[in-house]
Design a protein that fits this description.
Number of strands: 5
Number of helices: 12
Structural class: alpha+beta
Strand content: 5-15%
Radius of gyration: 18 Å
Low-confidence stretches: none
Helix content: 40-55%
Order of helices and strands: EEHEHEEHHHHHHHHHH
Oligomer: single chain
Strand order of the largest sheet: 1-3-2-4-5
Distance between the termini: 43 Å
Shape: globular
C-alpha cells in the first residue's frame, strides 16, 4: 500500500481501529485521489474519529499500479475499502451499512430525512452531463437542481442539510459540490451563481471543517479524474504531462460572496 497514510483519533485500546483504503491521486499516486465515495466515507469516519469513538487510519492506493499485497488481498476490487478488526468491507452500500450499524457512533450520522435524500439525488449525474460538452439545457438542469438545494437551505435556516449538526447527507453532498466548482468551471465554464447565497454559506461552513479539508482532493486531481474518464479509448491523452506531475496542488475553498452569520 502507499506510504501516504493519515491517522486521526486516539489509539489507546479503548476504541476500535478502523482503516479506510482510498484511491490515490492519478497524478502522483500518493496523495488523495478524487473518488467521491472515498471522500464521503473518509468524512463520515473522520467525524467519528474527532468524537474519539474510533481511531482512524487512511491509506491511499495507486490503482494504476496497485502493490502486490493489495492485489493479493483484494484482487480487482477498487477502493473505498473499509477494514474493521480484520474484516474487509468491499462494496459501497455495505460500507455505509457497516458504519451505520457496527461502528460506534455511526448510527448518529445516518439520519432519516426523505426530503433531503431526494433533494441531493441525481446531482452528480447532472454534473456528468454538463462535463460532456457545453450545452445550455444541461447547464440549466444542473443550475435548477442547485437552486432547489439553495431553497431548502434558505427555508431550514440551518448550518447543514438537516440541522446544525453534520450528517451523512452533508458528507455526500459537499464532495459533489466541490467537483461541480472545480470540474464544472474547468471543462464547461460552469459556475455556481453568487445569488445562491444560502448554498455558498453552506459551502463556507463546510470549508471550515477538518472533516472536509482533510479529505478533499486537490483541484488538479479532480480535473484529472474527468480527463481520464473522457480519454478512455484515446491512449494518447492518458500520458501525464511532466508539469502536471510537478505542479503544486491547489485547493479551491474561496467564497465569492460576503458571509455574515
Amino acid at each position: 500500500m502507499s506510504e501516504d497514510q493519515q491517522e486521526n483519533g486516539t489509539s489507546n485500546g479503548e476504541v476500535p481501529e478502523i482503516e479506510l483504503i482510498i484511491k490515490a491521486s492519478t497524478i502522483d499516486g500518493r496523495r488523495k485521489g478524487a473518488c467521491l465515495f472515498c471522500q464521503e466515507y473518509f468524512m463520515d469516519l473522520y467525524l467519528l474519529a474527532e468524537l474519539k469513538t474510533i481511531s482512524l487510519k487512511v491509506t491511499t492506493v495507486d490503482m494504476q499500479k496497485p502493490p502486490p499485497d493489495f492485489r493479493t488481498n483484494f484482487e480487482a476490487t477498487h477502493p473505498p475499502i473499509l477494514i474493521d478488526n480484520g474484516l474487509a468491507i468491499l462494496e459501497n452500500d455495505k460500507i455505509e451499512r457497516h458504519i451505520m450499524k457496527n461502528i460506534p457512533g455511526g448510527h448518529n450520522l445516518f439520519v432519516q430525512d426523505k426530503e433531503v435524500a431526494t433533494l441531493i439525488e441525481n446531482l452528480y449525474s447532472k454534473l456528468k452531463l454538463v462535463l460532456v460538452k457545453k450545452d445550455e439545457q444541461k447547464n440549466n438542469a444542473l443550475l435548477s437542481h442547485l437552486k432547489k438545494i439553495n431553497d431548502h437551505l434558505t427555508q431550514r435556516n440551518s448550518r447543514f442539510l438537516t440541522g446544525d449538526t453534520m450528517c451523512c447527507f452533508d458528507c455526500e453532498l459537499m464532495p459533489r459540490l466541490q467537483h461541480i466548482r472545480v470540474a464544472g468551471k474547468y471543462f464547461s465554464d460552469f459556475e455556481i451563481p453568487t445569488n445562491l447565497a444560502a448554498l455558498w454559506k453552506y459551502m463556507y461552513h463546510m470549508y471550515q471543517l477538518d472533516a472536509f479539508t482533510q479529505s478533499c482532493p486537490a483541484d488538479q486531481d479532480i480535473i484529472n479524474h474527468y480527463k481520464l474518464q473522457q480519454a478512455k479509448g484515446d491512449h494518447k491523452m492518458l500520458k501525464m504531462k511532466k508539469h502536471e506531475e510537478l505542479e503544486t496542488p491547489t485547493f479551491t475553498t474561496s467564497i465569492p460572496i460576503d458571509i455574515t452569520d
